[in-house]
Amino acid sequence: MNYTLVIHSILRWAVLLFGLWTVINALSGVFSKTKYTNSDNRTNLFFMISCDIQLLLGLVLYFNGSWFNLLKANAKEVMKDGANRFFAVEHISMMIIAWLLVHLGRSMVKRADTDAQKHKKSLIWFGIALVLILAMIPWPFRQIGISRALFPQF
Ligand code: HEM
User: Fold this and answer.
1) Domain that holds residue 125
2) Ligand 1 atom 11 nearest Cα
3) Does 28 reside within a domain?
4) Structural domain tally of the chain?
5) Which of 32, 33, 43, 142 has CB 3.0 to 4.6 Å from 147, enough for a Cys bridge?
6) Mutational pocket test of ligand 1: of 59, 61, 89, 139, the residue with most ligand atoms within 8 Å of the beta carbon
7) What pTM does this model have?
8) Is residue 143 part of a domain?
9) Contact 36, 119 (CB under 8 A)
10) Helix (H, G, I), strand (E, B) or coil at 21
11) With contact defined as beta carbons under 8 Å apart, do 19 and 129 qualify?
């Protein structure tokens, strides 16, 4: 059994939980004009940490598994096949962009002067990152070859 893949699969739920929580906090902050609290800061910190661990596990899966070798060996064929292209190119590149947005978001929010600005920046940066992550998860309803189970299969 590939334990790295099992943890990567389970940890998606932590990423989604903290991501959703962060975006809901930002939405309620923007619309109810509330203060930017320590709890808001902690929630998006957990979102960032879960994305960091997910990136690390993903890099191990990518470079220790077959996806990178496949791409190196025959990039043309990989790009022609939707499922291979998804894991060899799309999943990794879009998830790294989402991870970058989360990190940039944290520093933009830190730098913002007012609570209203902090909520607005949270909504934009973390919101776009969450949408990207949701779009690039290999959900069970995706095409054969891409689709993976919601939970690891033992
Ligand atoms: C927030 C970020 C990420 C989320 C939520 C996520 C989610 C997932 C999920 C749910 C799977 C399917 C697991 C299964 O088979 O049950 C998967 C597979 C995989 N992910 Fe990610 N991932 C993320 C980031 C990354 C990154 C940054 C990389 C690469 C650097 C990566 C590389 C991979 C690889 C190589 C697979 C293996 C597919 C396979 O061989 O079956 N992931 N990811």
Assistant:
1) 3-136
2) 9
3) yes
4) 1
5) 142
6) 61
7) 0.94
8) no
9) yes
10) helix
11) yes
